[in-house]
């Protein structure tokens, strides 16, 4: 899913292969949390100077000054979080996160969200297996608690099998960059996540066309667009044109309320073979 769709109680995995992609996700995650009146803690890579982190979050100017001064936004490290413990243990980290979540509520915020760059594992010389155990047994931090966490893995620094296991261990998996369109084709369904706009229009069209071809015999296709955070008017019209050209094909489109509204404005209600279903997270 796109990072913008994270909500309180989500435990998310994201991987990045270049530093710009990592900055995009953490910046969006941070600003969304501040707008929702949540406390935000950024545990950046130990290899990155703290001033660089602040600059990347606040480009092009000092807009985060007030949040920083009142303590709503904190840039820290895993080493500082578990202090004075000299070594990482899941129990110590869980304890400190629970304490910070409680503190955020006491300070009047709606909850706590953390962005954790996993370079801390090498910095603390932590055992990979112990870290993986923590990641796959942390459900209690999120159950009925206003806590949200992104675990960000630099794919250049972790083995492929570790990345695969951690991808599967997290309930939420994020797109690695803003502006992407992620497509998955399964029997009878096309899943679309991210943004369908001018930059991804051809990819969007191709995905819908392929879905229609795959379901030519059944003549029933589900377009799951509930994970789209943006659907352009052009893509909406493109979808209606494809539906009109496949009038013997029943198409069910699952959309966020905004997507349903855009499709209706484009004329979807005049398409007898297109059924719109509103979906909310």
Account of the protein in words:
The chain has 281 residues and is an alpha/beta fold. The protein has 11 helices and 11 strands. It has helices at residues 19-35, 50-57, 65-69, 78-82, 90-106, 120-123, 128-136, 160-169, 201-214, 233-245, 257-265; strands spanning 11-16, 39-43, 73-76, 112-117, 147-154, 172-173, 181-186, 189-196, 220-231, 250-255, 274-278. A 6-stranded parallel β-sheet has the order 3-2-4-5-1-6, sandwiched between helices. The protein has a 5-stranded mixed β-sheet with strand order 7-8-9-10-11, with helices on one face. The longest helix has 17 residues, at 19-35. The model has no long low-confidence stretch (mean pLDDT 94). Pfam families: MEDS. This is MEDS domain-containing protein.
| Strands, total number | 11
Oligomer: single chain
CATH superfamily of the largest domain: P-loop containing nucleotide triphosphate hydrolases
> What is the helix fraction of residues, given as a range?
25-40%
DSSP strand content: 15-25%
Domain MEDS: 10-171
Protein name: MEDS domain-containing protein
Pfam families: MEDS
InterPro entries: MEDS_domain, STAS_dom_sf
């Amino acid at each position: 899913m796109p990072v913008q769709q994270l909500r309180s109680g989500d435990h998310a995995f994201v991987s990045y292969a270049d530093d710009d992609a990592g900055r995009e996700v953490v910046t969006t995650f941070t600003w969304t949390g501040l707008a929702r009146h949540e406390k935000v803690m950024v545990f950046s890579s130990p290899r990155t100077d703290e001033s660089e982190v602040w600059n990347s979050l606040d480009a092009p100017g000092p807009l985060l000054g007030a949040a920083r001064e009142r303590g709503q936004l904190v840039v820290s490290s895993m080493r500082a979080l578990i202090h004075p413990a000299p070594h990482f243990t899941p129990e110590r980290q869980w304890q400190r996160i629970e304490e910070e979540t409680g503190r955020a509520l006491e300070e009047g915020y709606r909850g706590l969200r953390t962005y954790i760059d996993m370079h801390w594992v090498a910095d603390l010389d932590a055992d990979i297996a112990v870290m993986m155990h923590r990641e796959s047994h942390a459900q209690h931090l999120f159950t009925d608690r206003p806590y949200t966490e992104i675990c960000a893995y630099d794919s250049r620094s972790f083995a492929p099998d570790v990345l695969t296991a951690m991808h599967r261990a997290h309930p939420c998996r994020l797109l690695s960059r803003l502006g992407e369109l992620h497509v998955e084709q399964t029997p009878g369904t096309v899943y679309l996540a991210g943004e369908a706009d001018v930059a991804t229009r051809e990819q969007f069209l191709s995905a819908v066309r392929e879905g229609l071809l795959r379901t030519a015999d059944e003549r029933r296709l589900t377009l799951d667009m509930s994970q789209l955070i943006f659907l352009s008017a052009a893509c909406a019209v493109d979808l209606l044109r494809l539906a009109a050209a496949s009038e013997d094909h029943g198409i069910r489109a699952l959309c966020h309320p905004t997507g349903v509204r855009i499709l209706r404005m484009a004329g979807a209600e005049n398409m007898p073979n297109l059924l719109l279903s509103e979906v909310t997270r």
